Amino acid sequence: MQQILTKEEAHIRKLLVEVTDPEIPVLSIMDMGIVRDIEIQEEKVHIKITPTYSGCPAMDTIAMEIKYTLEQAGYPTDVELILAPAWTTDWITENGRQKLEAYGIAAPLEESADKQALLGRSKVVKCTNCGSQNTKLVSQFGSTACKALFQCLDCLEPFDYFKCLK
Amino acid sequence: MNDQQALYQYLLLLGDSPMILGHRLSELCGHGPSLETDIALTNISLDLFGQVRNYFQYAAKVQAEGKSEDDIAFLRLAHEHRNVLLTEQPNTDFAHVIGRQMFFDTFHQLLLEALRDSKDEQIAAIAHKSLKEVKYHTRFSSEWVKRLGDGTAESHRRMQDALDHLWPYAGELVQESPLEKQMKQQGIGADLEQIRPLYWERVNAILREATLEVPENSWFQAGGKKGIHTEHLGYILSDLQYMQRAYPNMSW
Ligand SMILES: [Zn+2]
């Protein structure tokens, strides 16, 4: 994305940081990496977003929320959903990863480590409560499409792990 | 059929199987054998519905008659559906659910891998996106087939039962219909002849590891791709389409 931002674009970006994923309310859509393009034209602002998962029920809400937020600030807005290139967990920003962990969701690992963890072959997912790596996979599918369910064997806390998607 | 009609029909063919299977899985919401499997199966259902929406939104655009994805999903009759018969088979028990899923996921992953190279950019984009999700489905269902097959005497017996039951429906997935042939020749559709040996190889490997006996029968039920279905589809549609039939044009 562009390095030099116009005043308008900087303002729009700032507004978009306020829009969060309704399923993970600590995370801004900018941290999630789902805003793929911001195009400012004379009449309208065009925002392109991409879904995390095809069936993510939050996308419609997010699109509405973007439109509402920007139009409240005086920018007539169109939101377009695009599929390519497909979203990857690599697009979650460092800031986003830290917020996830603080919220109690373990951030995605490397793809190979993710596979080993989800097959129950290695202990690499850290407990978000006590930091122990003595954790076990409870289920590959968790409370939402993007998460798996883990449990810490030291402090016994159950927690979500944000699955790697690449 | 002209090219546009063929593409529209092909999109229905791609979308109908995950839609009907997604509906079958949604019937398990709150009825899964354990909380974790319940959540997993409904998550898979949600992924499938998301993928179907992508196909049907595109189909509506290709059709260009001002219809929406909902019209396509909720207003077609049974014989207008092109899903394979496997996907409409009932949730008899968990072994049937998992067996059905394993056949479908194994095929689905190979199909999407092939569709990534489709000349149609939107189909390729949907395939790229869906494949990431389907890899998790394949892992889930194949692990469970192995766990049940290579588990207790009771789980083995039931998994073998389910397998024997579902086997006649396992071949249609890789039988090329005239429409699929046409789309393959245009560089848009997947080549089922290339997928077929890989599919059987993977299925057999999973079943061997699960210590299950591969049925010898190699005659398969078919018809779904041209709209000839088992009696189950009518019941599914009366449930799936209920709201649109009872309250035409209603929306959330
Ligand atoms: Zn812990």
TrEMBL record, chain B:
PANTHER family: 1,2-PHENYLACETYL-COA EPOXIDASE, SUBUNIT C (PTHR30458:SF0), PHENYLACETIC ACID DEGRADATION PROTEIN PAA (PTHR30458)
Name of protein: Phenylacetate-CoA oxygenase subunit PaaI
One GO cellular component term: cytosol
Record gene name: paaI
A single GO BP: phenylacetate catabolic process
Pfam families: PaaA_PaaC
